[in-house]
Design a protein that fits this description.
The protein has 274 residues and is α+β, with helices and mostly antiparallel strands. The strands form 2 sheets. A 7-stranded mixed beta sheet has the order 3-9-4-6-7-8-5. A two-stranded antiparallel sheet has the order 1-2. It contains 9 helices and 9 strands.
């Protein structure tokens, strides 16, 4: 168990990380109808965040999608607007992690994204014009498990159209001593697209806008604690997982939010985990 202090913009987060515990997200590949990629990506992020709270049952994916489409339509929507409208209901929070692109100095931002992906998935939106989209689909039709790079789609020459996916992790390849990194993305075009519904893209292939969905110390409700205490304890691993999830984005790890017996029990369990 390790402590990580990650600075995201102006907000500093203290994360208790169980390095053996993978980021959670739905493994199911969905098929969007019309321009509803945003709804599937947002639903996956909300369910992933709720799944990190021990004892909480995530909302059904299709229920979330249907509600978002009813509110925002089937012709696309701004994911940040959608998530900021949906997250308060389950006591979650949407936060922007900024933008990355091939033409700017974003090395530090990329490091932060890689660190975050060690613990949870992220939502990524990107924008391509018609010519680029044609090359995008042709590339993955020919190379389902290939890594799309900037040269494969060229420059944007006309009005771009957006798409939203969930980035589940990162990877790297080495060629002639040069290391290149890429994102592993979960798409919403059905299992027939790419590598069984997923694809890989170089981290600097095009402009990308990033969003995260988290929960904070003040949003962990008494019912969440009650469910945790009632959940079957599986020893060290169970306790470590709970505390890693609970402290995933705590701005400052102090005891002011737990008092008396609750704080003592929390410290005891934390010591057990260590």
């Amino acid at each position: 168990i390790i402590w990580l202090h990650v600075s995201l913009g102006t907000r500093s987060s203290a994360i208790m990380a169980d390095v053996r515990y993978p980021a959670q997200y739905s493994l199911s590949v969905h098929s969007q109808s019309g321009g509803t990629c945003y709804a599937h990506a947002c639903a996956t992020m909300i369910r992933a965040a709720e799944g990190r709270i021990v004892g909480r049952e995530p909302q059904a994916h299709q229920v979330l999608v249907d509600r978002m489409v009813l509110r925002h339509g089937a012709n696309g929507a701004d994911c940040s607007v959608v998530l900021r409208g949906e997250c308060p209901r389950p006591q979650l929070c949407c936060q922007s992690l900024g933008m990355t692109n091939a033409h700017g100095d974003c090395a530090l931002q990329l490091q932060r994204l890689r660190a975050t992906l060690q613990h949870r998935p992220l939502l990524m939106s990107f924008f391509l014009d018609d010519g680029q989209w044609s090359k995008f689909t042709a590339f993955f039709r020919k190379h389902p498990s290939g890594i799309l790079r900037a040269a494969d789609i060229g420059e944007c020459c006309s009005s771009p159209q957006g798409h939203a996916v969930v980035v589940t992790s990162e990877g790297e390849t080495v060629s002639n001593g040069h290391v290149s990194r890429y994102w592993k993305c979960k798409n919403s075009w059905g299992a027939g697209f790419g590598d069984r519904g997923r694809f890989r893209v170089d981290e600097l292939a095009f402009r990308m806008v990033w969003l995260d969905v988290v929960f904070y110390q003040h949003s962990v409700t008494p019912l969440d604690f009650q469910r945790y205490r009632a959940a079957p304890c599986q020893g060290f691993s169970r306790r470590a997982i709970f505390h890693r999830r609970l402290l995933q984005t705590t701005p400052r790890c102090s005891d002011h939010w737990l008092s008396g017996r609750a704080a003592a029990q929390f410290k005891l369990r934390l010591a057990d985990g260590r």
